[in-house]
Specification:
Number of helices: 5
Structural class: mainly alpha
Helix content: 55-70%
Distance between the termini: 54 Å
Number of domains: 1
CATH superfamily: Cytochrome c-like domain
CATH class: Mainly Alpha
Number of strands: 0
Length: 98
Amino acid sequence: MKHAIMVVGAFALLMSGIQSSIAADGKAVYDKKCGGCHNKGMMGAPKLGDKDKWAALAKGGQGPLDEAVAKGKGKMPKQDIPAEDIKAANAYLIKAAQ
């Protein structure tokens, strides 16, 4: 029983490491999940690279942006993607606007 618990724990750690490495590419997440609206500014979505809009949005730090994606805000519905992907995509958006 003890051995089984150790195996399950090791597997869980391995899988979390894999998930983190997958989520590291903010551009790929953006291209797949966000670009459809943000590239064109659909429904008022701030466009990729719009320095003024993203500076205002990023003023409070990345945390509120991550929360807005996870819970939805305005016309943007909540996005059902891993938190690591949300963070990576938002970091990419912020950097693209600098």
